Each structure stands twice: as C-alpha cells, then as structure tokens.
Automatic annotation (TrEMBL):
<protein>
    <recommendedName>
        <fullName>GTP-binding protein RAB5</fullName>
    </recommendedName>
</protein>
<keyword id="KW-0813">Transport</keyword>
<dbReference type="InterPro" id="IPR005225">
    <property type="entry name" value="Small_GTP-bd"/>
</dbReference>
<dbReference type="InterPro" id="IPR001806">
    <property type="entry name" value="Small_GTPase"/>
</dbReference>
<dbReference type="GO" id="GO:0005525">
    <property type="term" value="F:GTP binding"/>
</dbReference>
<dbReference type="GO" id="GO:0005768">
    <property type="term" value="C:endosome"/>
</dbReference>
<dbReference type="GO" id="GO:0005886">
    <property type="term" value="C:plasma membrane"/>
</dbReference>
<keyword id="KW-0472">Membrane</keyword>
<dbReference type="InterPro" id="IPR027417">
    <property type="entry name" value="P-loop_NTPase"/>
</dbReference>
<keyword id="KW-0342">GTP-binding</keyword>
<dbReference type="GO" id="GO:0016050">
    <property type="term" value="P:vesicle organization"/>
</dbReference>
<dbReference type="GO" id="GO:0015031">
    <property type="term" value="P:protein transport"/>
</dbReference>
<dbReference type="GO" id="GO:0003924">
    <property type="term" value="F:GTPase activity"/>
</dbReference>
<dbReference type="GO" id="GO:0016192">
    <property type="term" value="P:vesicle-mediated transport"/>
</dbReference>
<dbReference type="Pfam" id="PF00071">
    <property type="entry name" value="Ras"/>
</dbReference>
<keyword id="KW-0547">Nucleotide-binding</keyword>
<keyword id="KW-1003">Cell membrane</keyword>
Length: 210
C-alpha cells in the first residue's frame, strides 16, 4: 500500500490577488471570472501523488485578504506545514503586502514551515508591475520557493503545489488529524499524518473530516 500523508496548507495574500481562484484551479480545475471575496476562510482538500507513489493530501485553508479579517489569520497558519503567499503581478502593492505576510510567518509560524511566494495572473503579463527578477531575488534572499501562476489558464498551478509536496517530509509521526485551526504532527510541527494508520478508525459509511 502506498504511503499517504496529510499536511496543512494555508493561502495568504491581499484581497483580489486570486487566492481562491488558485485553489479552485488546483482542486477542481475550474476558473470563475466572477468569484466573490472569501469571508473568513474556505476549506478544501486535494491530493498530489509523488514519483515514489507517496500520496500527499493537502488540507487547504484559503484565507480572506480583506484587512478586517487579518486578525483571524494566525488561527489558520498556526501549526501549518506550508504556506502559499500570493501576490498579483499587475499590482506592485500586492507584493509589498506579501512581504508583510512572509515577515509575519517568519516571526510567528512554525519555524520549519515551507513558504512559497506565488505571483498570480501571469496571463496578464502585458500589465505586469512586478518583474520576475525582483520577486525571484526576494524569494532567494528569504529562502522561499517562488513561481508564477495563472489561475485563469492553469499555467504553473499544479506545478507549485507539487513542488511544495516534494519538499515536505515523507516520514510521518503518529498524530490525530489536523482540524479547523488544528494541529498537524505530534508537536504541531511539520510531520505529516500517516492516513494509512488511521483508516481503521474511519467508517467507510460516514463522511471523513480528514
């Protein structure tokens, strides 16, 4: 039986940079031109199968970008294994907001968290305000993963989540499942949850909250 691991992933970034569209493209391979702003946070799951057969299940928390919801963010990134901080390549101010989120994660999130900086809306390159060189240089200085994506066309979307999955540890510590603001790993750290160990505890006739 292939190994199945579960990790908590949070999306952060200014409102309207395309966080929800990015998740929708990754989870359902869909794009909606007229998505309403997220209220609080949305929860979705998706799996990635690595080359060695390991199945990585992401518990994805898509947080609202509006300032009034900012105080809720720590509830979602606390004990997260990985974070995708999204900016809009056509809005230079959104990169500055992304830098603020990254500083906050570096101060308050788990020290072992994997952070990916993601420049969305690459399909609007003609309106670009943030150069690839500037974003990539910043990511390298801060030790972040970096990529550009287009939630509209799908370009680069599955690649960034797969790259994150490959960087996560594939050794799992016994642990309870991560819940709403929950803990992932025995000490709330980066260890994945081995879903194979939990299968017997989950009835196949009942919805699984894992």
């Amino acid at each position: 039986m292939s190994k199945q691991l579960q990790f908590k992933l949070v999306l952060l970034g200014e409102s309207a940079v395309g966080k929800s569209s990015l998740v929708l493209r990754f989870v359902k391979d869909q794009f909606d031109d007229y998505r309403e702003s997220t209220i609080g946070a949305a929860f979705l799951t998706q799996t990635v199968t690595l080359d060695d057969g390991t199945v990585v299940k992401f518990e994805i928390w898509d947080t609202a970008g509006q300032e009034r919801y900012k105080s809720l963010a720590p509830m979602y990134y606390r004990n997260a294994n990985c974070a995708v901080v999204v900016y809009d390549i056509t809005q230079s101010a959104s990169l500055e907001k992304a830098r603020n989120w990254i500083r906050e994660l570096q101060r308050q999130a788990d020290p072992s968290i994997i952070i990916a900086l993601c420049g969305n809306k690459s399909d609007l390159a003609a309106r670009r305000q943030v150069s690839q060189e500037e974003a990539q240089k910043y990511a390298e200085e801060e030790g972040l993963m970096w990529a550009e994506t287009s939630a509209k066309t799908g370009e680069g979307v599955s690649e960034i989540f797969t790259a994150i999955a490959k960087k996560l540890p594939t050794t799992a510590a016994p642990s309870s499942r991560a819940g709403a603001g929950g803990r992932t790993g025995a000490a709330g750290g980066r260890s994945g949850v081995d879903l194979n160990r939990q299968q017997n505890a989950v009835s196949t006739n009942e919805p699984c909250n894992c």
